[in-house]
Design brief:
The complex is a heterodimer of chains A (about 150) and B (about 140).
Chain A: E1 14-17, H1 20-30, H2 40-45, H3 58-69, H4 73-79, E2 87-96, E3 105-120, E4 123-135, E5 141-152
Chain B: E1 19-20, H1 26-36, H2 46-51, H3 61-75, E2 81-88, E3 99-110, E4 113-123, E5 129-139
Antiparallel strand pairs in B: 1-3, 2-5, 3-4, 4-5
Classes of the chains: A alpha+beta (about 150), B alpha+beta (about 140).
């Protein structure tokens, strides 16, 4: 049973500085050889000012940025009472408003929207619904990430 | 990168170019943990995967979503993608060879944008589904 008092609670802002090497590292780990994620010259030839972050790059904001702020997914769920071995990712959804490039300074505001208990095939589980709003150094919202984390009882 | 698809040439029901990935390796899960910052041991430590009831390490859901992202940005440029969402429906393990496929479900014009909504899914070599989702992209 997770601590419901986290629903709607104000959480610390997270910060993440986007580095070209982390963009390439993610593309390498995924095995995505698209040159716009790794080669600045190829990215410029394609009309970008620099390499571009892949679509799932905002997951680094939540983990790397969140770790420093104490709101990294696993740390936060553990603090709320979850066993880390019983955490699964249920859903993830991104709404994009702009591209992310090296040098961007991202600030993220994370909210826990709801926690609902459901009966699944393998027993009861808590579904933790979150929304993270990420802004860049120009205070433009670049992406909103909605996630459902599943914590099996 | 291929030439971006044109709105007028796209029909509802059209299949997108699929993406077939090589089998997931344990080394890839270690790399993905380091890249993403998700260090839950169920992805890298065999005993933790066993203790969690998975029989061994399991892939990060976001690795599979990243494969789906690769399929999408092989088809359109990243700035054309307006929304992208998935629901994880199955666990992936080392050795699983993931294929991502998709098709055009809807096309419409709104606020001067020419949009398509595509349904996507990722399956393994036995056709077991790992995720199901969608994306919305603006086309020229």
């Amino acid at each position: 049973m997770l601590d419901r008092s986290y629903i709607g609670k104000k959480l610390p802002l997270l910060h993440y500085h986007v580095d070209a090497s982390k963009i390439r590292e993610l593309a390498d780990a995924l095995g995505d050889d698209n040159p716009i994620f790794r080669d600045a010259e190829a990215a410029r030839a394609a009309g970008y000012p620099d390499i571009v972050a892949p679509l799932t790059f905002p997951t680094l904001f939540r983990f790397w940025g969140g770790a420093a702020a104490g709101v990294e997914t696993r740390a936060l769920l553990t603090k709320m009472g979850a066993d880390e071995l019983r955490i699964l990712h249920g859903e993830e959804e991104y709404e994009y408003f702009g591209l992310i490039h090296p040098g961007d300074d991202i600030t993220g505001e994370l909210e826990i929207l709801d926690i609902v208990t459901k009966e699944g095939r393998s027993g009861k589980m808590d579904m933790v619904k979150t929304r993270a709003t990420y802004r860049n150094q120009r205070n433009e919202v670049v992406v909103i990430a909605r996630a459902t984390m599943v914590v099996r009882h | 990168m291929s030439v971006s698809p044109k709105f007028d040439a796209i029909q509802v029901g059209d299949a997108l170019p699929p993406l077939s990935k090589p089998p997931i390796t344990e080394t890839q899960l270690v790399r993905y943990s380091g890249a993403s910052g998700d260090f839950n041991p169920i992805h890298t430590v065999h005993q933790a995967g066993v203790d969690a009831g998975h029989g061994g390490v399991i892939a990060h859901g976001m690795l599979i979503m990243g494969f789906a992202a690769q399929m999408i940005t092989n088809w359109v440029r990243p700035e054309q993608v307006k929304r992208f969402g998935v629901r994880f429906t199955g666990i992936s393990r080392p050795g699983d060879a993931i294929t991502v496929r998709g098709w055009v479900a809807e096309k419409w014009e709104e606020d001067g944008q020419r949009l398509v909504r595509c349904e996507i899914e990722a399956v393994d070599q036995s056709n077991h589904r790992k995720l199901k989702g969608y994306f919305v992209a603006a086309l020229l």
